[in-house]
Amino acid sequence: MAHVVMCWELGGDLGHVARMKPLAEALHRHGHQVSFIVRECLPAERLLDPENFRWFQAPYQNEAVPDPRLPTRNLAEVMHNTGFHASANLAGRVRAWRRLFALLDPDLLVFDHSPTALLAARGLKIPRVVLGTGFGIPPSVSPFPAFAADDAAPDLVASEARVTVTVNDALQSLDESPIARLADIYTAEANVFFTFRELDHYLGRDAGDYWGPTQQDAGVAPTWPPGDGKRVFAYLKPFDTLAALLATLRDAGHPTLIYLGKGAEDIRRGFEGGNLAFSDRPVDLRAAVAGADLVVCHSGHGTISAALLAGKPLLLLPLNMEQRMLSARVIEAGAGLAAPALAPEGMRQKFQRLMAEPAFTEAARAFAERYASLNVETIPERFTALAERLIASEVP
Amino acid sequence: MAKILMAWELGAGYGHLAPLLTLARPLKAAGHEVSFVVRDVVAAEAVLAGSGIPFYPAPANFSPSGAVTLHSYPQILLSTAFNHADEVRARVRAWRSLFEMLKPAVLVADHAPTALLAARGGPMRCVITGNGFVLPPDVSPLPELRPWAPADPKLLADAEAQALQQMNDVARRLGAPLFTRVADLYAGTAPALFTFPELDNYAALRAGADYWGVLPGPGGAAPRWPAGSGKRVFFYGQPFPSLAGVLESLAGAAHRTLVYIPKLAPELRRFAGPRLVFAGTLQDMAAVTRDCDAAVMTSGHSTVAAMLLAGKPVVVLPQHLEMFLIARGIEESGAGLAAPALKREGILRKLARVLDEPSFGEKARAIAQRHRDWDTASAVTKFTALVTRLAAER
Fold first, then answer.
1. How far apart are CA B251 and CA B274, in angstroms?
2. Do A99 and B56 touch (CB under 8 A)?
3. By CA distance, what is A54's nearest residue in B?
4. Which residue among B39, B46, B59 places its CB closest to the CB of A41?
5. Could you give the percent of chain A with pLDDT greater than 90?
6. How many CB atoms lie within 10 A of CB A345?
7. Are B165 and B233 a contacting pair, CB within 8 Å?
8. pLDDT of residue A261
9. Which residues on B lie below 8 Å from A102 (Cβ)?
10. Which residues on B lie below 8 Å from A63 (Cβ)?
11. ipTM higher than 0.85?
């Protein structure tokens, strides 16, 4: 029996723990112990069985960095803004990670969006697996690609060089050898992409081991409002022009099932009834997309994956850079349209095109057919086999 | 020898770490195995470097309630550590994970309510330590902290009931004994109250309490005062909006000023000159308080205490509740003045009064005289004995 430690350092919400949960459960079924080191404890409490798993707080940059890079143009700048701005800060957090590793004595380390934890693992001779969607695993290039194509300004080189110097100063204070470029931080015994090549945030990656998405937790069964014709499923958070989107969905008259995150109760009250039904709890994604003809979401990886695997087109309303990058991939695949400005008229026109033009559904179906043989339920077992092989191997 | 865990969960800066390190060193020297769990690992790296004491990050609340004007200890709990039942339980489990791995015999908690909640019903002995502000008295209801601008007592009662409910929700779900009031969080623990009555906002509510004095800060560089003659003023703390104007005036004043503001904006260094010097690192407070005539301070229970114990008056510039309460204590004792409006003219006028009117220095020297028998070494020895005894009892 081995001890596997799963690390999540950057980002928010449930997605990181949700991705690792089925992997941890499979390892646990095979008799291994799994501990989590998490950025936020709440997702662990929400998703993990405390009888089976322990979790610990990940080291984090406590104070806002004094000179954040805004807008944040690539992963190097994300790193700067999250505590890679000063070598003493970075070295302090690296040491804290190392003490946690020493306390837990892992046989295998798993990293989800965890650059400082990866630095701390250098030289420890513990096998490492880096996993994530494309966003959390940068390509092995220098400088890291710009998030948005029009940000490809030459000073990304200088910006990344400063972060690299900070990292190497920290490594020197830890008596570790320097890195040549930031991408070297992500060196690991295995990289696993829990996404599809078509949905990789970074285009044109040379190599990548794409396994598809891990199974998300099921929610409640979808209860559709009455009515005939095409159905719409919307998985949304509150945003400024939400009321305009809801008006479009109501006026279109299609039976529409909506899950809204917290904070939009007032807006929701004005739209309840008729062809719109709101679910109070998260809806079982696979069942909901199976019954829908169009999926509306903020371009989260889980919802997009579920929709495309079911051959359903998407109206995408991205709220952040990561989501904008992913929506661009869906548009390239021809399986959806994005309204990133969230303007009422833009959302309405794109909704109408998606409902009227069959090409989007055809592209989504082609995607689903390409992955018809993918069985996401087997991914955790496959991961366990990889983990056991790495645990048995020697790390040079 | 025993395993000792020292926990710091809430707050910022070095004000919790430095005293904990002072207490930890003799425990380690006596052969105990000491670990820290800390709010800020970067601050811990700065303070604990070279001590050989391992530290781990304290479980953190990434969604605390928004800023509101706080009026009571239960409101502080609700806005920081105990604002959401699922979230508190998530962190309590993370604390328990650390307890299970580190297996401490004694938990020393400094402003660490979630650590105490996690320890509830367990086998560890608990010591609570810190200044008066972080150790509420054993009363219910807990008092209004802004008596000069009180909230509706009903609101405070509701907050106390809500905090109690959060605590009991966690206790019930984790099979720990329930609480009957918020102050029970500290019941059954051994207090080591590191302050003096003059700086304890709860002094009136804990008659007969044992005051352990104030532990020194982390130490630092020898002060380098501007050359020449004139009284010496030490200026320490956080930036505030009228800081540039105050520095400009001090640069042209008759007295000499040594400024240590860790987060000073670089452009304000332009005020350096023959009457005003900026220090770039932590200062040795023993030397500073010996040499200066008065201090202007925005923050720091232990730095204010160091001034009073040296018999030197202070002007306090409070920016948050804890410092407002310290400022009130200072004004009541007569050993200084508060300038809560943080306006240039008021600060300078009050500094002039504190320097010129002998009563402030006299009152400060009276406080120093009252505590002349207190010394750090005996407080630390007493603490070591307490922890060693509790560890042996287990």
1. 8
2. yes
3. B97
4. B59
5. 86
6. 11
7. no
8. 81
9. 54
10. 12, 40, 42
11. yes
